[in-house]
Flavocytochrome c (Niallia oryzisoli), 449 residues
Amino acid sequence: LKDNYDIVIIGAGGAGMTAALEAKAAGMNPVILEKMPIAGGNTSKSSSGMNASQTKFQTEQGIQDSNDKFYEETLKGGKGTNNPEMLRFFVDNSAAAIDWLDSIGIRLNNITITGGMSVERTHRPEDGSAVGQYLVKGLVTNVQEQQIPLFVNADVKEITEKDGKVNGVKVVFNGTDEKTITSKAVIVATGGFGANFDMIEKVRPDLAGYVTTNQEGSTGDGISMIEKLGGTTVDMDQIQVHPTVQQEKSYLIGEVVRGEGAILVNAEGKRFHNEMDTRDNVTAAINALPEKNAWLVFDSGVKSRAKAIEQYEKMGFTVQGDTIEALAEKMGVPAADLKTTLDTWNNAVTNKNDAEFGRTTAMDNALTGAPYYAIKIGPGIHYTMGGVVINTNTEVLNKDGQPIPGLFAAGEVTGGLHGQNRIGGNSVGEIIVFGRQAGVKSAEFVKAQ
Ligand code: ADP
């Protein structure tokens, strides 16, 4: 560890490591400080994939998409409240972000669909596995290859400034060893506050008692540090509750399961909502059930296409039956009703017409391949859409809308892009697009000093 770096990056999740790689490529000498014992943050838990439009992989696979469509669907999902400049920048740079990842050996060429979109746009690893682990592994490898220093157990407590300019951080190593590091710029990539129950309950008392899918380092530190320097926040009460979380282990069951064809049924063995609706609407539908939980039901075909299911099985989340009746027994739902539900659904798939709930996507395959499976799920705190206000240069803005010199932020710590509801797959897109931008723009700032 040195006393001085060009750029200090706080947080070794997807946004922080991406920013570090771009800063290094721009000739900078950055350092990454991570408070947990390992790198990865919530990024390593992300499952669905990375949304991007007009990508080379979509073109290769004959998927017709456009940046405008991506923009419109994200805006609709966010209830029209997304920051329009941020959203425009995001969609327009999404394909380049996929190319950049490919250029550093991180290939996301297996494309699926998540709730709230009309075409396959969610890019995941070739083998269809969850995106997070793969992405983090690839980024860590690159960070090592580029010899970017990354310190774990390095908890940043304060961002320092002099004469209105950010000039470094105060950090505590291994819980005891306090150090001051100076720099010309600081990039805050500390993630969200989905594991900070005090902060959540302050803005959303109605979420008391919910489980969280977040890693324990997601405590909103970056937000409070930035507020102390005059930064502002937006949408802090917009907290995404994910509809499909295994409750006992607070473990997210990825949207890919529905994206590859699963349905949701209630305790009566009946469907109750369009499974591919946006996360907020599916959550509301589950919360409206008397039991406030539901079952994801799928067949061996879904299991083979959504690789993440192997992990869920290993963790003991799945129940299984060679027939629908046998599955119903394991689930404790009426067998005849579950059978009718599946027959009706399979007809809807064949006729491409879900007369009951109007689902129009992820209907390519009927659920007919034994064995059959189910996973019991309920809602859990998943993502904090709000956060600090930045512009498309990732400069942190004060209450007058002016950049705070030397202070940059990217990733879940920022607010505005997602508006009131994040579309699954957009956060991985966000950390790469804006992480890159933070690396590039902070380097420009440092060079101009
Ligand atoms: P993003 O998706 O925006 O990159 P992640 O949750 O993946 O966010 O990563 C954020 C990282 O920042 C996590 O690994 C988290 O432990 C780390 N972090 C949070 N607060 C601090 C802090 N005060 N000092 C150092 N690292 C922090």
Q: What stands out?
A: The radius of gyration is 22 Å. Residues 169 and 377 are 41 Å apart (CA to CA). The chain has 15 helices and 20 strands.
